[in-house]
């Protein structure tokens, strides 16, 4: 029983990362209405920028470790915001108006560019951060087995929960949240009602990037390194989770992604780890098919003239 509780607690941390990415992805997808293949790579790019900035601060500026980490986080958020702003104004908004389907191809190109930028900046080397806040916090203990989480896991879970709750409340109650829902439903009708559709597009894309930067920073500080491949895998999983869950409610998508992270952790604890991604993707595909079938059966029949 304690082993099950340990795996469940481990899943909370994985679920926190997935929840942040799902919230940000739905925030962006709500206005784009197209698959964004660059979201996972943006998460990895933010983590890589944090590590490179921390290496620069430590080796060149001779900063202390807390100052080095603070510099890395600040630069990661700065780069993620600048990247999202450029993409929103130069790629997403023009394509959403002229050729929405081209967004899928464009985001694939953006993903490749972000991966190459990270590789070139690191000179094709892997830099690792030292373990931080890795002191165990004991929850339960019996028969020599101890259920623990590290301090950084608890901090990451608390930050993710706070960010999602605050952003979810802001979306449901603020003026910008109402505008986001209006543009997500019908951009043309929202424009006729006086909503600044371009401004909402920009805010949604940048807001999604901030969530990706937060998740990337948390992953970099916890794992010590974030690879481009892991960003693609995280992005694809979040894409499937949100497709099976909800593209219209970021908080609901975040809750579903958190449950997926817990399920993934339980799989790792009881089944072969090398098959984890294959089986979890198969589960997501099956869930997507079943939910789509249920929606089609629940939908009213189309009327014919």
What's this, in brief?
This protein is mainly alpha-helical.
Describe this structure in words.
- The structure is a single chain.
- By secondary structure, this protein is mainly alpha-helical.
- It has one domain (2-298): ABC transporter involved in vitamin B12 uptake, BtuC, CATH 1.10.3470.
- It has helices at residues 2-32, 39-59, 65-98, 102-121, 151-173, 175-185, 187-192, 197-223, 228-244, 250-270, 276-298; strands at residues 136-142, 145-150.
- A two-stranded antiparallel sheet has the order 1-2.
- Helix 2 (39-59) packs parallel to helix 4 (102-121).
- The N and C termini lie far apart (61 Å).
- The mean pLDDT is 88.
Question: How are the SSEs ordered, and which strands pair?
Answer:
Layout: H1 2-32, H2 39-59, H3 65-98, H4 102-121, E1 136-142, E2 145-150, H5 151-173, H6 175-185, H7 187-192, H8 197-223, H9 228-244, H10 250-270, H11 276-298
Antiparallel strand pairs: 1-2
Helix pairs in contact: 1-5, 1-8, 1-9, 1-10, 2-3, 2-4, 2-8, 2-9, 3-8, 5-6, 5-8, 6-8, 9-11
